[in-house]
Design goal:
- The protein is α/β, with parallel strands linked by helices.
- The protein is 29% helix and 22% strand.
- It has a 7-stranded mixed β-sheet.
- Helix 3 links the parallel strand 2 and strand 3.
Length: 201
């Protein structure tokens, strides 16, 4: 239900024009967000760096030349120069609290223009997928966690899909309730949180 295209569409409306920008995609996985960033306005003229802890994901990204730079790193140990835009999509839920709070603080410090975060809304805990330990969901995030830090928070879909019952009703509810979740993100399935430093963005 958390189809990347839905997340990307909402991120698109919150991105500045990327020409000449330095962009960091943290926890880039197989590069779906990086590919989207590259296709966004100005993306072809941006410097885009992807980081991930899982080597095979980085190898996959290298095959398609999505990123200008790829860095193998735990998000908690990133040691980089600031970026104009930082995107952490579906990352925080993979890091236990309070370590995830420290990661978010570190990423906020790297973002000179804006930081965009997406994460499941509320409990969505799960074990690792296959042998990829970093795919486990181990922390829970809610609207207030971001608003307290000065983020604008919006939502996508609804929480019905968390039951993993892929019925026509839950699928219909996912799309039908997204306009409401945008205004009342507490009911959403996915949170999108944005914090800008420059009011011009």
């Amino acid at each position: 239900m958390q189809h990347p295209a839905e997340i990307e569409r909402w991120i698109a409306g919150r991105l500045p024009h990327l020409a000449g920008k330095r962009v960091l995609d943290v926890g880039c996985g197989t590069g779906s967000i990086g590919f989207f960033l590259r296709q966004s306005p100005g993306g072809s003229d941006a410097w885009i760096t992807g980081t991930d802890i899982h080597g095979p994901y980085l190898d996959f990204c290298r095959r398609f030349n999505i990123y200008d730079e790829l860095v193998a790193s735990d998000a908690a140990e990133l040691d980089m120069e600031p970026f104009d835009v930082v995107v952490a999509s579906e990352l925080l839920e993979h890091i236990p609290r309070p370590a995830a709070d420290h990661v978010l603080e570190r990423l906020e410090g790297l973002a000179e223009d804006c930081i965009i975060v997406t994460t499941p809304n509320g409990p969505d805990l799960r074990p690792p997928i296959g042998e990829v330990e970093s795919e486990a969901h181990v922390s829970v995030w809610r609207t207030g966690d971001f608003r307290r830090r000065g983020y604008e928070v919006r939502g996508i879909g609804c929480r019905l899909h968390r039951s993993n019952r892929q019925s026509r009703v839950t699928i219909a509810a996912w799309y039908a309730l997204t306009p409401v979740a945008r205004i009342v993100p507490a009911i959403s399935g996915t949170l999108i949180a944005v914090r800008r430093r420059s009011p011009a963005l």
